[in-house]
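Sat 14:20. Reprocessing the chain from the morning session after the first attempt stalled halfway. Input below, unchanged.
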Amino acid sequence: MESIFVGIDVCKARLDVAIRPTGEIFAEENSIPGVARLADRLKALEPTLVVLEATGGLERDLVLALVQQGVRVVVANARQVRDFAKATGRLAKTDQLDAMLLALFAEMVRPPARKVPEERVRALGDLVDRRRQVVDMLVMERNRLHSVRAEAVRADLHAHITSLEKRQSELDQELKALMETDLQWRAQRDLLMSVPGVGQVVTLTLLAQLPELGQVSGKQLSALVGLAPFNRDSGKSRGRRSIWGGRAEVRTKLYMAAVTGIRVNPVLRDVFQRLVAQGKPKKVALVACMRKLLVILNAIVRSQVPWRLVDGTV
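Finished this time. Tokens:
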């Protein structure tokens, strides 16, 4: 049978679908009945791969419906799709053209499918995301206090800040309660937080957004998070290695953990000081500490043995 590839452009009201190599294009409404109809139709089609882009959560119901129907689906990185469009000279943009581009991307690139998290992991991830949003709003409101002089506006800002602080505290309690109800999560939390420098927020982010922790190699995990350095060499020129891509929120939390870790964690402190003594920029040394911390956490979860202060390994 000829391989079939499907691209789906997701928006709030509609799902535009393109199929290769037949060239068929159609649309469904982005609603519970529409998603069900589309999932049934694609199941009957038996495509090799379905590709769509992440759209802030609008794609979640569709992805789950397709997975439940046994359809292989990938939520593609938007940057990769944009780069692919530029490389193929497809610069025009409409919903139908985007669906056709995604179908072509599926056929030519065939990105690897990522396992869809369990319902409990999705629930944890939603709470972690919401806490981050509240913290971001708190930072913005506190920054506005420095530039506002009108007393009425300042009073309004203070009231909103108080409300946001209360909501952050409530979310912390909800996350703590959710963690306490799951024996597996509690065990994982205790393992991760046994490492000096790793706190509750880092632990929650890892559990929610890095379910591969403990299941793949350290190198694979570094690549997933975006901590694997990429070469920039050409001919005799040797460019500076750099990191990019991956899961930005996980990387951000690992950065904060590494900043704390070089003060309280002897292994990370030694790595940082050794690299700085070798003339490495502090930022480069800190990224190396992030990578080292991730490898340690991965080994701890895989072995189910907590941190030992002997040599930082398990």
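Residues 85 and 164 are 41 Å apart (CA to CA).
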